[in-house]
Amino acid sequence: MDEDSRDSTINEEYNFPQIEVKQHSSEMTIPSEYILSFDKLLTEMGFGYYQLKVYFTAVAMGIMEGAQVTIFTLMVPIIEEEWGIPIELVSLQTSFVFIGFLFGSLISGQITDRYGRKFAFNMSSLLTVSVCLLTIFQDLWDYQQAFFAPCCITALQEITPTSLRASLTSVVTLSVSLGQMYGLFLASLILDDNTKGNWRVLTFWGCFPGLIAVIMSFCIIQESPRFELLQGRFNQGYMIIQKMQRSLLSDDQKFKLKNWAHQINRINKNNKNASFSCLFQDKLAYITPILWIIWLCICFVYYGNLTLMPAILNELNQGQSELRQLVFSSISDVVGAIIASLIIDIEGLGRKNSLTLGFILASVCSYFIINDSFSTWSIIQRLLLSMNFIFMYLKNLQSLRYQLTTEIYPTILRATGLGLGIAVGRIGGFIMPWACLIMQKNFSILSPFTLFGIFCSITAVITQFLPYDKIGQELDT
To answer: Which helix (H) or strand (E) holds 23?
Structure first.
């Protein structure tokens, strides 16, 4: 029996009245009493064992990614010393890393929206860990990251109840910060000092959480039931939902879920092919560029602070331990992620205003570093204090940008929009080392913080032009 025949049988058996379909501006509407949205069903189901396992897998991958970011930061001076690489080539290598980020996120977003969350989740986790391990023998670090983020965040958002969606996204970003601390712990055991040590062994142990995540991914990850329903594969969607809630769906629930899928697909009928051009249709034509500026600024300033820190500490030669300062910055990241989880659902702050506030505070800290008016503070004191606060604010912003982006785009475009946002952000990472190098050569070693402050101030203003904040709303509205 096909789906239409089954629906007719259900209607007759339960005496459902005929649904009156109205047409308004080419959109078909179905009375709300005959619709059960997937988000409402998720709220009724709650956060169960299946979601917990998926989040644990994502957290393990996040720990690996954070560890690898720290390891790469520590590897730069080691490889520079070991291989005698000039600073210009170090900047080039850093730029190549972000080119890898860019293409990885673009490809991942398209695969996720075209072929499903499960396939992308499994393949990207396997590819990320495999290439990371190959880095031990060949310099492939440039291409190992960014495949996983679009499909991971998309998959998690689509199986999480609305009330928990924002705070649990912060948990995933928190795992990256914990991964950075894990990388620092490994470095303290394996590296001799800031310029010597077996970075290959360090890389291998940094990958260990990812190996666990790959095994779990292939064993437990199911396709997103939201994605299946909106693709018209209703029976598969119903089966996955029943596995998640460990009970059967009623015929009434199936009927209303199907109506919801039809309604959402009618609204998003122009986005069916998940192409990049769909990100610029209707109201998204105004929103997408603003999101790109937000992503660009956060990546530029965050990775600028992260990659400049070792060189600045060595140049100032103040007897500060680079590893200790990286620990402080990682702790600041953790604090920032916790703050994000606490404020992201506060009415009046939400996503948009929290982003604006974070950019303003990061700008103030950048100004504090370069301002000599604070004569009672030494340069190193201003630097260490302000950089820690900048890391805290930017980690807060990182949580918010993921949440805002995934909520704005519909399911059929969610991973593509997120992937392209990540890609644009990596452009900031690509130009960052060259911009900082030029400013340091022509002005002073701290001059890039002027650029960071200006960029954050401009982005704070631009963020306020976002037309709405989707705090507490369903994903596909």
So the answer is: strand 22-24
